[in-house]
Design brief:
The protein is of the alpha/beta class and 304 residues long. The chain contains 12 helices and 13 strands. Strand 9 and strand 10 form a beta hairpin. It is globular, with a radius of gyration of 19 Å. It starts with a helix and ends with a helix.
Amino acid sequence: MLNEQHLRDPKLPRKGIILAGGAGTRLHPITRGISKQLIPVYDKPMVYYPLSVLMLAGIREILLISTPDDIGGFRRLLGNGEQWGISISYAEQANPNGLPEAFIIAEDFLAGSASALILGDNIFYGHGFSSQLRGASEQSSGATVFAYPVSNPQRYGVIEFDESGQAIGLEEKPQSPRSKYAITGLYFFDTDACEVARNLTPSKRGELEIVDLIGHYLSHQSLHVEQFGRGFAWLDTGTRDSLLDACNFVAAIEKRQGLKIGCPEEIAWRNNWIASAQLTQLGDMMNNDYGRYLIELVGATERD
């Protein structure tokens, strides 16, 4: 049994949560037989992208939460994570009761650690992103969220700023938004998140709302907001059009630059979590361009 001091020790390594539940009804009939987060975004399963974000943040212990029907597919795809030098556990969310429920489900897994929660259908790409992630992960108290300017803020949770750029308000899908900045599906919380989530009151929709969890930190003046601007891409793949846009975006970047987006094998290798021989072995297991890319990473380093 963990003692109380251990449960509140900010020095414990931060752990990650991927929330990959939901019925994916906006993508029917595509998602009638498969979880949305298991369908491909160009050359890899959708869930690889949020997984890679947590790995870029230096997080090695990850819990994936999904529905009872879909959890087996994630187990088959990801295993226990050892191939990437990480640990992946699994938990079920029987009903979609809101994003903060992830912290109630994950409480035993977190065991007093700070956390990072990412939604399984979000894709992030931009220069300097790794540094922002590491900075957020190293904060020992409070919460960090990421805001992105959108043309249709009515569809999102929106964060309001004062003239100095300080966050002063939150709204969930407002009819008349006070800001164009949507809160993305990536959140870093300190060790209080589980307790705060347990004490939230369900909204009129009957769900626990992520804006209420974030609002707790805002009201206690312990919320940090990172703004993404020009040159950064945040893609939500919840509709057919946005899924197609994401596929085309990833394809265009990868073909143009010859570099992959959301590649857990490469991130694990560059983080020194797996050796070059293991990366080569992973590449040899794939008879395609993805596998050759992994093998060529090792070859390029050896030539240098």
